[in-house]
Amino acid sequence: MRKSIGLLLTLCWCASAQKTEAITDEAKVPAYTLPAVLALKSGQPVTDAKSWTTKRRPEILAIYEAEVYGKSPARPPKLNYEVKSVEKQALGGKATRKIVTIFFSDKPDAPKMDLLLYLPAAAAKPAPVILGLSFGGIHTVANDPGVPLAEQWTRDNRKQPSAEKSRGGEASRWQVEKILAAGYGLATVYYEQIEPDFAGGMKYGIRPLFFKPGQTEPEPGDWGAVAAWAWGASRAMDYLEKDKDVDARRVGLIGHSRLGKAAIWAGAQDARFTFIISNESGEGGAAISRRDYGERTTALNTRFPHWFDGNYKKYNDRENEMPFDSHMALALMAPRGLYVASAEGDQWSDPKGEFLGAANASPVWELFGKKGIGTMTMPDLHEPVGDSVRYHIRAGKHDVTEYDWEQYLKFAKAQWGR
Ligand code: GCU
Fold first, then answer.
1. For ligand 1, is residue 228 a contact (CB within 6 Å)?
2. Quick one: how far is CA 173 from the chain centroid?
3. Residue 371 gets which letter from DSSP?
4. How far is the CA of 237 from the centre of ligand 1 (A)?
5. Which pLDDT tens digit goes with each residue over 40-67?
6. Which strand (E) or helix (H) includes residue 329?
7. pLDDT in tens, 177-209
8. What are the structural domains of the chain?
């Protein structure tokens, strides 16, 4: 992870005077009680799919808009895009490669993003596609000299032309050849073209396009950067719906880490995503916030003040007062597919908390006659569990690996039926 933190910080996060250490010992985790996912605010139990869809789901979505990610603008009436290139013999003849620029506004200097799309060369019909938010410019996704180098934001928050040596820098995280061999396409967009990821990066991203006259800073309830990245994923989906080579009824969304948080929020709001994959999304993502293990709300809000709605800061050191928890956010995907994954070496993201988020969301799928995780016991390493909701934990560090993709491709096949 480009911006991952060192072990020291992970184990000793001096976020506030009251709380100096992140717990990574299961025996020290205090007891907590989760809010009920299947009860209305009034207390009335939710026992059927219709009441979930028409009553409880909108309640939870509204809570997350007001308290966590902030309210996103609606889908723009028109999508402006330009197909920059189409190469039919990419990746040694295995793929058709398209590069498409998506414009967020008519203003000439407004942000725009480049979408890289690989489709299986031999596809006889429109291909299902996995869309991903990526941490690097599109040239980092595969070792493909045909993709032009993109400008990227650097650690000191400057935009610079990328060096040739960064080409393919994320290739192991995307497993393009495996995806193509499964008969699917891969689309990626670089998240910092939607909003650069540093406090103060907002002014270079899309949020100011939606400010009220005279507004210069977000107000409580306004969307944060995570929601902006999620919104960008939906704009990529707008394009995929227009591409005749894409089976737009079969598009899944993947995000890793902070982009896993964004994928959860994108999937919650945009029902066109037939599944989402949260890879090690951790706190503010799939992990149960009430579990005092690994990263906590104060650390998140302090180190990344631009990620969430300002109201989320109310819950610093007050997780037990949240009228929500991650199982409720994950349940917003029902009855579509949900995959949550963890890594043993990524205790900061709280693997067990991620599992419990998915497990406690699962009863909502049962209302639709689908099977969720099917167990409340955390599985062993490399033992994926569940059906429409799946979970695995693998050995190794915070990353997206070949093993992860092997599981995601099996899940995609089960979800898509092809
Ligand atoms: C930090 C942060 C996490 C986040 C991760 C990432 O570790 O504390 O919440 O998921 O960065 O995006 O890499």
1. no
2. 14
3. -
4. 25
5. 999 999 999 999 999 999 999 999 999 9
6. helix 326-331
7. 999 999 999 999 999 999 999 999 999 999 999
8. 41-79+104-109+118-132+172-187+205-416 (3.40.50.1820)
